[in-house]
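Re: Re: ligand-bound prediction request (bumping)

Still looking for help on this. To restate: I need the protein modeled with flavin mononucleotide bound, output as structure tokens. Inputs repeated here so nobody has to scroll up.
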Amino acid sequence: MLPWLQNNQFPLYLAPMARYTDTVYRQLCKREGADVVVTEFVMAESVLADEPQVWENLHYTEDQRPIGMQIFGSNPKTMAEAAQLLEHRLKPDFIDLNFGCPAEKVTCQDAGASLLKNPSKLIDIVESVVDAVPGTPVTAKIRLGWDDQNIVAMDIARELQNCRVGALTIHGRTKVQGYSGEGRWEIIREIAERVELPIIGNGNVKNSRMVKDIRDNTAIAGVMIGRAALGYPWIFNEIKQHLETGTQPPPPDIETRWNTIVAYAELLSARPARQHHTEQIKWMRPRLIKLTKDMRGSKKLRHDLQNITYLHQLREVAADQMKKELTA
Ligand SMILES: Cc1cc2nc3c(=O)[nH]c(=O)nc-3n(C[C@H](O)[C@H](O)[C@H](O)COP(=O)(O)O)c2cc1C
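Reply:
Sorry for the wait, this slipped through. Here it is.
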């Protein structure tokens, strides 16, 4: 049993989110209470080709442990070799296999969610990776199925019980649903009741009430939080405190929020892969917009953030917002 799933610990996972859950953001979420983090997915072939961006995406600091590294691909042998290389070079706490990505550029390669249409190949990949990395636990992440007519999560979960995987994350939507609509937790719940494998539930987890209900009334072993954590990394400790004490801490004040955002931007800009951009933060705008979208005057703020290019401009926006908030 994975150590963080022992004794009904009910861990909160930060979901892997490409282009958002970089090493600095994972560190931030971990500091704010995430129990387990997973890197954004990298293509097995890119790992084997030693592409520099892969190593940047998988970079981590020791305080992020336990950390899972996620790979995707369609060839069992290549997936196994990539897992071996990661095990050897980066020593993750677990390797996670992506069978849920709905993006055309992934499914057209017969990878990600398209493997839900080919469960026997999906199982081949899992078995091949599990055999290749005996020293590292392997987990998988799936969706319910390709579409409503093809819900295969229960069948896959049953098969995976015999594959020595450490846990299965189920995103309660189909590929066709993409990211819209509510997650169908009744299906995840039923799977968790019927299979031996620890099931991590995922899909629209937004508040502590929902998490408490899942923990107290289902056999689901933990939850994974995606978009709700992108704008608000504090969600983890808020949920945890509610689970432990029944009361929720007050949200962070505006100063804490802005200081966190500026510190995040500074740390990310200092990453080796970004240093040649010096202070340029154009590429970071979507992340900054997510982090501020529930703030007062968010429409204007969005406009301001869309027009900044340098860190000093971000500091100016932050100072201006804090001043406005204090005098409001
Ligand atoms: C921008 C973005 C990038 C994502 N990248 C990945 C990824 O690399 N690997 C993965 O397994 N899921 C990825 N996902 C899916 C999330 O991990 C999660 O399953 C999904 O967002 C549902 O959870 P939520 O409703 O809490 O957001 C991504 C989602 C988003 C929004």
